[in-house]
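Contributing: when you submit paired examples, paste them exactly as shown. First protein:
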Amino acid sequence: MKIEVLETYPGDVVAGDHPYLQGAWTPLWEEVNATDLKVLEGEIPKDIDGVYLRNTENPLFEAKGKYHPFDGDGMLHMAAFKDGKVTYRNRFIQTKGLQAEMEAGRALWAGLMADPALSERTGWGAHGSLKDSSSTDVVVHAGRALTTFYQCGEGYRLDPLSLKDEGLCPWSPLDGISAHCKVDEHTGELLFFNYGKHAPYMHYGVVDKHDQLVHYVPIPLPGPRLPHDMAFTKNYAILNDFPLYWDPDMLAQGKHVVRFYKDTPSRFAIIPRRGQPEDIRWFEAAPTFVLHWLNSYEEGDEIVLDGYFQDEPMPKNYEGAPKGYERMMSYLDQKKMGCRLHRWRFNLKTGKATEQRLDDRILEFGMINQRHAAQHYKYAYSAVQVPGWFLFHGFVKHNMDTGESWEIRLPEGQYASEAPFAPRINAKDEDDGYLVSFITNENTQTSEIILIDSKQFEKGPVCRIQLPHKLCSGTHACWASGADLSQGGLLSRSPA
């Protein structure tokens, strides 16, 4: 393996007893380029061409007050596959907040669990006092990687191969962009939403394949809400108003206290992709909260929406957690929240919604073959969480037509990242390709890349590739094929 260390940052984070500053969540403070990666097992397939990107919450400075893992600075990791070879890079996302803190040599913003009064600078996004760390999500649109923050931010762009900083997203509205923008691979459009504490409380927008903002409209809500994801079909965008949101009375006092209003229905806004507020159709369903959707498509008079229903959106404190972290750990535990694969149907003719549970197992962070987004699809890939921890140790493949499923688990002490689907070159059908994931191995204090052949899912990884350093865990990832990068204007090339 050839490793070029570009930068080693003087991080000053002290883990202490914090459960999410050690183990697989230990921060990483170096940036490298690596080529000629060592293959630990199997062979790197030659029928895969593209780039795997994963965002990471990776704090550089000691927190002001209590640290929450979602406060960490954004770090993007890249693995590019071509001709049976892999290159790897990682870079901190050069947000305004990170640059200000690097200049000051200390944290300047309070985090999610801290008193907002501790912030020395004005905050960004829905919360109003948080740093926009752009650390939650990543997609590739119009040839560029776009990173975003879950409580809305400005959106940062990087070259997806070289990870060269390309600055702020130029079309970002005043209210920012939430994580979980959606890229329609068939039209090249990017669909996004944002939310905040002033009316109308949510907006929805469309950016075309040429990276121009072409549509932006309000989605009026009764008050401030906390949406995390959206979905889309060929003709519609789907937004939500879930009954888990800041207590209005406490918010009036400047306190962000989340409550679940269990007697209030979930509401879904279905709007034509270039529609106006008066075109919105609202549907009601059982009260819940959904972090992530899988896919949505039109079927006759109905819209089908698949995602992960929470039985307990406001779980009880986590017993056995380090003192002071009981509530934080409960909200990172999918078992306590009861996250399960679920299907909603919205009948555009009758205005009625129906829903059904698709699997009783605790599952979340699902992926599909994005070439089948917004249309009927057959296969879904969900992550299996380590009970009690925001760490993944397995995956489940579902046949959404038959209900069949297959599950694999990683060896003890190994933890996966979100695993997008990478189609084979000249793929013949929907599951003709690989799941790609980064693995952190606590037994060896190393990290690696794995590829799982979806056609032989239960056999586990077909290859394991060593990485140059141990990665800090993170949230979301994406895959962009070499052909899509070429169409986005990057051409098929190796990192510069």
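Second protein:
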Amino acid sequence: KIGGRQKMNLGLHASGFLVDGEFYRSLQPRVSYRLMIDENWAAKASFTTMYQYVHLLTNASVGLPTDLWVPSTKTITPQTAYQGAVGIARTFKDQGLEFSVEGYYKYMTGLVEYKEGAAFFAESSDWQTKVVQGDGWAYGSEFFLQKKFGKTTGWIGYTLSWNKRKFEELNHGNVYPYKYDRRHDASLVIAHEFNKKVDVGLVWVFGTGNATTLPVASYQGNAMNQLSQLGFPTTVDYISARNGYRLNPYHRLDLSVNLNKELKRFTRTWSFSVYNTYSRRNPYFLYFDNDPRTGLRVLKQVSLFPIIPSVAYRFKF
């Protein structure tokens, strides 16, 4: 603590990782600072360095999405990140409200992505030969309004963000959006207690669709493979940009009602809830198929979890 209004946390994180005779080591300083401007206003700032020895390897093409965690090796170096953030918060004590806004910027190196056309299980060769390493940036702003007490509680949150990647061997060396680049992310949570016996809840979430890679054209090629030697034409897909297509936005509404009753020895609760109330068909993955009526190649979407009602019973003693 610095005086009565300032507080600072200082830290140093040390780590090491031994693999294939290679020893990776790091020292990661972290600092956070908070200033109480007055009883209702507070400002904060932080800076963090991070060193990670495992990598998230995800496919960004059409088909069933797969996320794999792979370790650093003698040839695949760890990833590093540097993140800074600043924010300000305001408390409205009479109304039980808290509001905050924060901005952040994160720079990353040593990130891992598949090479063009490569996949983890496509060939028997070592996975290390199928990936490349590059840089990334993530930055944006977060807005948050919360009501903590009273019969009606909840919060509203909104994030505006960018998440980009750059690999010399991918996308002609141009910057492109990462799979989880989500421009808009919003959430609304409301809980209301009518009395000790009945309370209800509402949750609504919205997010920009994930970025994915799709071909913009196809043509007949002359690649020499087993199919072409048997007289079958070879179709070649043309991709103009990596992650140049967006899935449909993700959003859903969940509702719940709890019926509570205090008995002599315990309190029992009946819970009735509905997941995805308006049965939004959110995209899970895309794939190409032939339309049986027209014979044309069409893009289809697979969705999971339509409207799902549920009932639960619990007791506490």
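If you have annotations for the second protein, write them as plain sentences, like these:
The radius of gyration is 26 Å.
Residues 226-229 form the longest helix (4 residues).
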